[in-house]
Amino acid sequence: MNQVWRKAFGITGLILMLGGAPSWGAPPNNDDSDAAGNTAGGTGALQNTTTGAFNTADGFFALFSTIGNFNTAIGAEALVSNTTGGANTASGAFALFSNTTGGANTASGAGALFSNTTGANNTAIGS
Questions:
Q1: Number of helical (H) and strand (E) elements in the chain, helices listed first
Q2: Which of 41, 75, 102, 124 lies at a 20 to 30 A Cα distance from 113?
Q3: pTM for this entry
Q4: How many domains does one find in the chain?
Q5: What are phi and psi of 90, to 5 degrees?
Q6: Domain that holds residue 22
Q7: In this structure, is residue 126 part of a structural domain?
Q8: Is residue 51, in this structure, part of any structural domain at all?
Q9: What is the rounded distance in angstroms from the CA atom of residue 126 to the CA atom of residue 28?
Q10: Where are the alpha helices (DSSP H) in 1-127?
């Protein structure tokens, strides 16, 4: 059991320290959350977030621009169109891609809930 934990922590350390520098990206610096509790990794992730709080994005342009709160986007362009929607979880490339104001949605899988814009309280699993 201890060996499993050591491997898990070793892999986590490797991911965070590729090339001697943390790989987890802005805002506003390359290894911490910002003052509002937003954490991002990947080119363009949370790039235009101004007042949103407690959002997590990891992936190319994930949660690109939002003022919503409590969103999680993992995957390329997951929740990329989100503006004010909150409490959404998108896992997979293009999951909840078109969502703008919809809230409390869960999408897991590439393109899951791709066309949802304002719908709330939806769950989709799969492509």
A1: 1, 6
A2: 41
A3: 0.76
A4: 1
A5: -125, 125
A6: 1-119
A7: no
A8: yes
A9: 33
A10: 2-16
